[in-house]
From TrEMBL:
Belongs to the small GTPase superfamily. Rab family. This is Ras-related protein RABA3. The chain holds residues 10 to 186 of 232 of the full protein. It comes from the Eukaryota. One of its GO terms (molecular function) is GTP binding.
Length: 177
């Protein structure tokens, strides 16, 4: 690792999971580049982006992995989860089915990821107020039962995206330090 003012104290691997089209890729580019791309779909294959942030006066490089469409083919492999310290489990607040599948994604994490992985449940597309089908209370209850952090976000407006990632990274830091 580098030394001097740019030295990195930690690299945290975070995986983003959830059904197709819930906004995983957009959340990632909002956090990593502060961008929302209208046509961003890349080729199938695992990819990650990074952003370096300060967490409790440490320099933490968040290495955030995107399924890049593998979930469509139920092909998210254990290699994807290997070494992950955190997970963003995303559903779409306008698509009930994506929330109903969250329990399955939690099982997938418990099966393939490290036991101490920190999980944040993310209800994305909160900007689509009139199209909402998943009440906040349903997600709060699920998150409490499962011991997950919970945020509603909009990758489009940016609302709560940094807050959610920062909370996840802070909790990872407190788990490992
Ligand atoms: P992924 O398959 O989970 O990676 O989903 P994408 O990031 O490709 O997003 C799927 C679609 O939802 C795209 O058309 C995005 O532009 C749109 N989308 C993603 N996030 C948001 C959001 O926060 N608000 C709204 N209104 N649309 C979003």
């Amino acid at each position: 690792l580098e030394s001097g003012p740019d030295k990195i104290d930690y690299v945290f691997k975070v995986v983003v999971i959830g059904d197709s089209a819930v906004g995983k890729t957009q959340l990632l580019s909002r956090f990593a580049k502060n961008e929302f791309c209208l046509d961003s779909k890349s080729t199938i294959g695992v990819e990650f982006q990074t952003r370096t942030v300060n967490i409790k006066s440490k320099v933490v490089k968040a290495q955030i992995w995107d399924t890049a469409g593998q979930e469509r083919y139920r092909a998210v492999t254990s290699a994807y989860y290997r070494g992950a310290l955190g997970a963003m489990l995303v559903y779409d607040v306008t698509k009930r089915q994506s929330f109903d599948h969250v329990a399955r994604w939690v099982e997938e994490l418990r099966a393939h990821a490290d036991n101490s992985i920190v999980i944040a449940l993310i209800g994305n597309k909160a900007d689509l107020v009139d199209l909402r089908t998943v009440p906040t209370e349903d997600a709060v209850e699920f998150a409490e039962n499962q011991g997950l952090y919970f945020f509603e976000t909009s990758a489009l407006s940016g609302e709560n995206v940094d807050t959610a990632f920062h909370k996840l990274l802070e909790e990872i830091y407190s788990v490992i330090s």
